[in-house]
Specification:
By secondary structure, the chain is mainly alpha-helical. It has two domains: 55 residues; 162 residues, Intergrase catalytic core (hpI Integrase, Chain A), CATH 1.10.443. It is built from 13 helices and five strands. The strands form two sheets. It has a three-stranded antiparallel sheet with strand order 1-2-3, with no helix packed on it. Strands 4-5 form a two-stranded antiparallel sheet. The chain is globular. The chain starts with a helix and ends with a helix. One of its GO terms (biological process) is DNA integration.
Length: 254
């Protein structure tokens, strides 16, 4: 692990640990998986000895190797984005998809993170505590400007219920449960049968960029992944590069 990342294991963030364990599981997939298990046990021992038990002992769960992410088609995305009645909800969905955000990242967005002049969004303290910039679509900028004029959020971009307090009006942000409810409601209204979560829009963002010709390294940076292997899963779901597979029945009677 130290050679792989060129640093001590105790200096890694949970996202990097998760990526490394996934690689170990893929490369040492023996019937007993003993190599993988001993790696996990050794890491837990090191974290305990370094006094990092509370922070590190619960190692991230591994992604199942054979499970591919759910991805929406572009027509499905258009239906989903237009389904909510509230402008705020439509803009929230467009931001999740158009910027490839995690649910928590969308909740943490502030007005000060928007740079309309440079057409960039500053994503602060994403997974692993990393900051990154992602481009803002002209379509999204128009929607955001309209939403800001209409809703007048004060601090958080997507504010929840504004409540009275001793210090005046308190501008609360959306929480993850609220974002998940918006996505579920939009899926039902759009008549989409697939299971759709906020993270589905992030998967769809990456897959559509890959299908539109963006390279995998740039997609990795936009998603904020620590390791390229995490991003490589989208190569299995994107329909680009090679000729799309088809059945010989399609050409049998041509």
């Amino acid at each position: 692990m130290a050679l792989h990342f060129d640093c001590l294991p105790t200096e890694l963030d949970p996202d990097q640990l998760n990526d490394y364990l996934y690689l170990v599981k893929q490369e040492h997939n023996t019937p007993s998986n003993s190599y993988f298990k001993f790696t996990v046990y050794a890491l837990r021992y090191v974290f305990r000895m370094e006094g990092l038990k509370d922070k590190r002992i619960e190692l991230p769960a591994l992604r199942r190797g054979g499970k591919l992410p759910v991805v929406l088609s572009k027509p499905e995305v258009r239906r989903l984005l237009s389904a909510p009645k509230l402008l705020k909800h439509r803009v929230l969905l467009a931001t999740l998809y158009g910027c490839g955000l995690r649910c928590s990242e969308a909740c943490n967005l502030k007005l000060s993170d928007l740079d309309f002049d440079r057409r960039m969004l500053h994503v602060r303290q994403g997974k692993g505590g990393k900051d990154r910039y992602v481009p803002l679509s002209e379509h999204l900028i128009r929607g955001l400007e309209k939403y800001i004029r209409s809703e007048c959020p004060q601090t958080w971009l997507f504010n929840g219920q504004v409540q009275d307090s001793e210090e005046g009006l308190l501008d609360r942000r959306y929480n993850t449960a609220g974002v998940q409810w918006v996505v579920r409601s939009a899926r039902r209204a759009a008549g989409i049968q697939k299971q759709v979560t906020p993270h589905t829009l992030r998967h769809t963002f990456a897959t559509h960029l890959l299908e539109d010709g963006l390279d995998i390294v740039s997609i990795k940076d936009l998603l904020g992944h620590a390791c390229i292997d995490t991003t490589m899963v989208y190569l299995h779901v994107a329909q680009s590069g090679r000729k799309k597979p088809f059945s010989p029945l399609d050409t049998l009677y041509c």
